[in-house]
Amino acid sequence: MSENIVFKPETMEQVNKIIARYPDGKQKSALIPILHVAQKEFGGWLSVPVMDYVATVLSIKPIEVYEVASFYTMFNMKP
Q: What is the pLDDT of residues 17-62, one digit of tens each?
């Protein structure tokens, strides 16, 4: 994979603030707002590597991210 998928430091700060809104163990609740941030940060769409990265950030399984991202029409799965 040639692209380096990591949030910019200022974006990671924003992501951490979103995660902090939810109780410990409930970080999955931050998934939709973080997918919005990721889509904006990584070119307007959610590639599989980007979704995998979001799963890592939230400590959830990648399939949980794919299910949400593919269900809602506000998320672009293609460029």
A: 999 999 999 999 999 999 999 999 999 999 999 999 999 999 999 9
User: In this model, does residue 74 exceed pLDDT 70?
Assistant: yes
Residue 13: is it exposed, middle or buried by C-beta count within 10 angstroms (0-12/13-18/19+)? exposed
- 14-48 in b/e burial notation, b at 16+ Cβ within 10 A? ebeebbeeeeeeebbebbeebbebbbebbeeebbe
Q: In the numeric block, which tokens belong to residue 5?
A: 């998928």
Question: Which H helix or E strand runs over 5?
Answer: none
Region of 8 on the Ramachandran plot (φ > 0 left; ψ -120 to 50 alpha; else beta)? beta
